[in-house]
Amino acid sequence: MDLNDIVVFTKVAETKSFTGAAELLGLPKSTVSRKLAQLEERLGVRLVQRTTRKLALTDIGEAYYTRCSRIVADVVEAEHVVMDMQASPRGRLRVSATIDFATRYLGDIVADFLSVHRDITIELEASDRLVDLIEDGFDLAVRFGPMPESTLIARKMCNISLVLCASPEYLARAAAPKTIDDLDAHDHILFTPTSRNQTWTLVSEHTEQTYEFGRPARFASNNYGAVRDVALAGGGIALLTDFMIAKDLETKTLVPVLPAWHTRPTEVHAVYPARQNVPPRLTLFLDHLAKSLNPPPWQR
């Protein structure tokens, strides 16, 4: 058995492309094709169905990939263990976080970490998609909200809240609301992360009274950055995360609206795959992240 052939096969299966596998492995496309053909010949089965336009696994190929991917993952993990057993933790960490959080705060936190740990490298994917840590090969993800039941380990970092805000120009034009019921007469700038989530429950910190902030909305988007931009431009009253607008509130380009009203705190977690032995480089980064977010920089 040639483990190299198995690695080639798993990359072809994951990228569904000889070209993509070749780029990942740093091999010529012809070598990838030859190694896969050798593997199929040795096994006496067709693993991949090739057409002029696409590539797909056969049923046998799917079953073989399920087992081979575990073998390859174990080999990679074994290499990481060896590297981490050296005097200084080293190796690569792949981290996933939402675009807004990554661009506003995580970059500085990562930079501080890298300045101390010279032998560790970090790849940060800033994306609002919910990555599969195991399938996509991530070591850690920063996630907001309740953690669903899973095999992942979740470590709480801090809390965030959504708060009402608007530009001074809008409030001068439309008159700032004095009570929560006054919001009904104002233009709403609404963040809608999914088609199901069209309203947000605001809670009074004094009375526990609630208010549903949602449609009708003058502007709605599934992107926090766009919601913030419209609020800055005077489009209405927006509900935005406290970490998104901390600097805007400081410079008074946005001002609080009904500050006693906000959403209930949302927990921020660092999640990572359950492992028998957590690599020291991951433990170091988790500790650094927890220290950097307690208290959160936007609340200091």
Largest sheet: 5 strands, mixed
Shape: elongated
Q: Name the helicity range.
A: 25-40%
In the sheet with the most strands, the strands line up as: 4-3-5-15-6
Give the SSE string.
HHHEEHEHEEEEHEEEEHEHEEEH
Quaternary organisation of the protein chains: single chain
DSSP, total strands: 15
Number of self-contained structural domains: 3
What does the radius of gyration come to? Answer: 25 Å
Strand content: 15-25%
Overview of the molecule:
- The chain is of the alpha/beta class and 300 residues long.
- The protein has three domains: 3-84, Orthogonal Bundle (Arc Repressor Mutant, subunit A), CATH 1.10.10; 91-158 and 267-299, Periplasmic binding protein-like II (D-Maltodextrin-Binding Protein, domain 2, 3-Layer(aba) Sandwich); 162-262, D-Maltodextrin-Binding Protein, domain 2.
- Helix content is 40%, strand content 25%.
- The strands form four sheets. The protein has a five-stranded mixed β-sheet with strand order 4-3-5-15-6. A five-stranded mixed β-sheet has the order 11-8-12-7-13. A three-stranded antiparallel β-sheet has the order 10-9-14, with no helix packed on it.
- Helix 1 crosses helix 2 (18-25), helix 1 (3-15) crosses helix 3 and helix 2 crosses helix 3 (29-43).
- The longest helix is centred in the first third of the chain and has 26 residues, at 59-84.
- The N and C termini lie far apart (58 Å).
- The relative contact order is 0.14.
- The model has no long low-confidence stretch (mean pLDDT 88).
